[in-house]
């Protein structure tokens, strides 16, 4: 193959050099040669244009394919299209060389910027990466409830397009492994699918934090705490950066609003100007959304001043450096920073922790823009008498959740406990849905609990007791059919219509539970409702 000797001109276009061959004393030959050369240039340009056209057409087809796929999978077509386009244009690698400059002790520990991945499937290519640093606290721990809240009601599509990274920012191997095992035991499916990862830092990542300069009147312990926190955020961001398009910074003691992922996508897609931070909570470093392509710059800035100031101050200083004019007043500066740091209302995340990760610190911080969570979901259920053997907590009765007025809450169930709904008139039940736990108490679920139905036909019930089930459902000694069970706090399904009319539905608890139980949604669908 021949080699093209074309170079880029000052205006960015390709220029094809013209070598004019002049025959001495023959102008005709000169013009003919120039004409042939020009013709070759035009043919080459035409071929290049056709090639670029094919490339652009292929790229456009791919964009259309991705957008069409997203449109078929969502109800909010316009915003998801914008989110998809954002994803297609924000894929950049991260460079780690500056880390060794700001943390020179790492020159002797080159691998210390890479985490110990304890559990996870190394998922990449997602839209949203969520980072949760967690450390050992003296008193109460909130991590499991935080994860329950984040995973609560996520659709399969959303789970497939995000990853939640739990960063256990400790070097004590025993503690790190205990947290990791608790996460794995509580969320085995999420670990297996890759939506949830647990990582920890190598001990050599951290520099000596014993002789830090005290500033701003902070105690030595507080300076050490906030310095390590800056290093933790930096480590987590560097690990998360290549995994997805956007990075959401969270903490381990929060709750989230339902459908928070879709709300984030919608808000990001609506932005008509360039932004650096989208805030979904007023508090601290909770609910801050970044473009992954910006994380290397942000981490560089954090590491430059990690010993000097807290993380939220550093973020504010970074914005100042980017947009504030030194010869203009503070009001102008705040206005310019607000263009890069945009706050969403209402807030999507609420701080629930009381005991800080800093020993002895109590913090009752609440985001006023968060509002109240909807803690139950109402449905129009058929008339029924309700009963339970569980010990009811305060005013949270079974009648209230069945009638859609509040959730049901009871003390820890034991084996043999039950919840029953007996219809005033036998009904043809098409399907059922029961949800346990809610946003504020996501761990208060029903475990090892079966869903059972009582056929209205007494002859059929007697046959079930005497001879067992003929419907491929196990039968109980009192004539109920076991048609389903709770999985990860939810029981749902359709009922075989050949069973006929149903007299009652019962939830039977088969083992002692270590936690209280909440029913936050009850749906019994009949042909009439």
Please provide a written account of the structure.
The chain is an alpha+beta fold. Helix content is 34%, strand content 21%. The strands form five sheets. An eight-stranded mixed β-sheet has the order 3-6-5-4-7-10-9-11, with helices on both faces. It has a five-stranded antiparallel β-sheet with strand order 13-15-20-17-18. It has a four-stranded antiparallel β-sheet with strand order 14-21-16-19. It starts with 6 loop residues before the first strand and ends with a strand. The relative contact order is 0.09.
Break the fold down into its secondary structure elements and pairings.
Elements (H helix, E strand, L loop, with lengths): L6 E2 L5 E2 L11 H47 L3 H12 L8 H6 L13 E4 L6 E9 L8 H9 L4 H5 L1 E7 L4 H14 L1 H6 L2 E5 L19 H21 L3 E6 L4 E3 L3 H11 L6 E3 L8 E4 L3 H10 L6 H13 L6 H11 E3 L5 E3 L32 E5 L9 H5 L5 E3 L7 E10 L1 E8 L12 E7 L2 H10 L13 E5 L4 E5 L7 E8 L7 E10 L3
Parallel strand pairs: 4-5, 4-7, 5-6, 9-11
Antiparallel strand pairs: 1-2, 3-6, 7-10, 8-12, 9-10, 13-15, 14-21, 15-20, 16-19, 16-21, 17-18, 17-20
Helix pairs in contact: 1-2, 2-9, 8-10, 11-12
Q: Which tags fit this structure?
A:
single chain, 529 residues, alpha+beta, eight-stranded mixed β-sheet, five-stranded antiparallel β-sheet, 14 helices, 21 strands, 34% helix, disordered N terminus
Concise summary:
The protein has helices spanning 27-73, 77-88, 97-102, 143-151, 156-160, 173-186, 188-193, 220-240, 260-270, 295-304, 311-323, 330-340, 398-402, 458-467, and strands spanning 7-8, 14-15, 116-119, 126-134, 162-168, 196-200, 244-249, 254-256, 277-279, 288-291, 341-343, 349-351, 384-388, 408-410, 418-427, 429-436, 449-455, 481-485, 490-494, 502-509, 517-526. It has 529 residues and is an alpha+beta fold. The strands form 5 sheets. An 8-stranded mixed beta sheet has the order 3-6-5-4-7-10-9-11, with helices on both faces.
């Amino acid at each position: 193959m021949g080699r093209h000797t074309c170079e880029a001109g000052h205006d960015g276009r390709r220029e094809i050099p013209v070598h004019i061959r002049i025959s001495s004393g023959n102008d005709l030959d000169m013009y003919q040669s120039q004409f042939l050369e020009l013709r070759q240039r035009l043919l080459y340009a035409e071929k290049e244009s056709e090639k670029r056209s094919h490339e652009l057409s292929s790229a456009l087809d791919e964009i259309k394919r991705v957008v069409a796929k997203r449109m078929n999978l969502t109800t909010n077509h316009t915003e998801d299209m914008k989110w998809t386009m954002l994803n297609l244009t924000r894929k950049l690698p991260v460079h780690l060389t500056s880390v060794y400059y700001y943390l020179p002790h790492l020159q002797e520990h080159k691998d210390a910027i890479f985490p110990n991945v304890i559990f996870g499937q190394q998922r990449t290519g997602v839209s949203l990466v969520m980072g949760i640093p967690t450390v050992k606290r003296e008193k109460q721990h909130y991590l499991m409830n935080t994860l329950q809240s984040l995973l609560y009601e996520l659709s399969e599509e959303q789970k497939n397009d995000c990853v939640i990274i739990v960063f256990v920012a400790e070097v004590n191997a025993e503690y790190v492994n205990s947290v990791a095992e608790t996460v794995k035991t509580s969320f085995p499916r999420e670990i297996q699918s890759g939506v949830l990862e647990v990582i920890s830092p190598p001990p050599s990542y951290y520099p000596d934090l014993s002789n830090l300069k005290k500033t701003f009147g902070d105690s030595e312990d507080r300076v050490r705490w906030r310095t390590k926190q800056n290093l933790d955020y930096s480590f987590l961001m560097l690990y998360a950066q290549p995994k997805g398009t956007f990075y959401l910074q969270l903490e381990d003691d929060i709750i989230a609003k339902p459908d928070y992922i879709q709300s984030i996508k919608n808000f990001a897609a609506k932005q008509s100007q360039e932004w650096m931070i989208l805030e979904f909570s007023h508090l601290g470093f909770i609910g801050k959304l970044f473009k992954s392509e910006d994380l290397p710059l942000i981490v560089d800035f954090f590491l430059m001043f990690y010993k000097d100031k807290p993380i939220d101050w550093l973020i504010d200083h970074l914005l100042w450096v980017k947009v504030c004019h030194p010869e203009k007043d503070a009001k102008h500066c705040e206005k310019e920073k607000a263009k890069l740091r945009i706050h969403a209302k209402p807030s999507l995340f609420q701080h629930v922790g009381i005991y800080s990760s800093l020993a002895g610190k109590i913090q009752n911080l609440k985001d006023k823009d968060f509002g109240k969570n909807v803690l139950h979901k109402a449905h129009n259920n058929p008339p029924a008498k309700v009963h339970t053997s569980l010990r009811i907590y305060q005013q949270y009765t079974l009648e209230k959740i069945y009638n859609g007025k509040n959730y049901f809450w009871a003390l820890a169930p034991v084996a043999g406990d039950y919840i029953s709904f007996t219809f005033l008139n036998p009904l043809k039940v098409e399907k059922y849905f029961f949800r346990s736990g809610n946003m504020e108490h996501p761990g208060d679920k029903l475990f090892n609990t079966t869903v059972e139905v009582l056929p209205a036909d007494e002859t059929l019930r007697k046959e079930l007791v005497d001879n067992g089930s003929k419907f491929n459902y196990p039968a109980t000694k009192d004539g109920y059919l076991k048609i389903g069970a709770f999985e990860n706090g939810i029981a749902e399904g359709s009922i075989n219509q050949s069973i006929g009319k149903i007299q009652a539905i019962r939830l039977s608890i088969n083992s002692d539970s270590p936690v209280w139980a909440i029913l936050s949604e009850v749906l019994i669908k009949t042909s009439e409702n």
